[in-house]
Amino acid sequence: MDNQNMNNGNMQEQTAAQSEYIPVQNSYQPNAGQTGSYGSNAYIPASPQSTHNIDSVVSELKKQKGIMIATLVINALILIVFAAITTVMFIRVDMVTEEMAADLADCEESICKQGRTVSAISNGMETIVEYINDEYSYNDPYYEDPYPIYPFIQEDKPVIYLYPENETDVEVRLKLNDGEMLCTYPDPVMDGDEYVWNMHALPDGTLYDADGTEYSYIFWEASSYAEPDFSEGYCVKGEDTAEFLRTTLAEIGLTPAEYNEFIVYWLPKMQDNEYNLISFQAENYDESCPLEITAADGETADVLRVMMAWQAVDEYVEIEPQSFDGFERNGFSVVEWGGEEVK
Hints:
Elements: H1 2-20, H2 24-27, E1 36-38, E2 43-45, H3 51-113, E3 120-121, H4 125-133, E4 150-151, E5 153-163, E6 168-175, E7 181-185, E8 189-191, E9 194-201, E10 207-208, E11 214-215, E12 218-222, E13 234-237, H5 241-252, H6 256-270, E14 275-281, H7 283-288, E15 291-295, E16 301-313, E17 332-342
Helix pairs in contact: 3-4, 5-6
């Protein structure tokens, strides 16, 4: 009984204590618009957002925006300046190129009036223009100076045919006063500054060397010789070159076998040109490359040398035509033909 009364008393005391306890969350009411969270026994309000922090962020964004705009403006100005400089450079290059082209055209016209055309090879076009502006003299293309200008001449395939009346040994001597030897067949021997071939020749033109090797002719090729003379000659359409060479070489004195070999060698280089300026060289060739023929039996040779200088040109050129005496083959005959392209 006493225990029961004691328990009832404790329960009443506990109930009274509970009725007196009011949790904080029940008694605290947040203000309207205030945010927070409830803890176990208390409402914890959220930290209020600082107006100062928002202003700082906005200010920083405006600052970054201004920097970006300034950067874009600067880049645009740089591009404009670069474009302007590039445009000026291109305009200047075009002007210089036109001036140089005009000067070179004047140079070519001046040289053509002298009876020859030269392609200049130097330290670049600028050097050529300087010479033109300084009225450089082209009278001596081999004049040595700090900025040399040379005509580019490609001399090809001079060949020598020997036609004695009777089978005999023949000595052929060739000297180069201009240029240097590039190729020979068969090989000569040197006698001082002369190239010497000792051949055994038959009337039909067949040749044998000391070892008995057979040849149709003597071949030699040099780097260049004296300045070509275009004071007389012909200006021929490329498509008409084959017929021109056939008739003209026959008039000069070559046989069909000789001029056909000449034509098949040179025609591929000439037929596709708009025009070919052609001149057959004479005294200047003999003086530059003297040729001496001596037969063992003492027979004297009549020598015909045909050296064609030519240049491809875009337009017809007025030129005084050449005339030829012809070539009579009486006794021992020697025929040489070759050509040189002037570029």
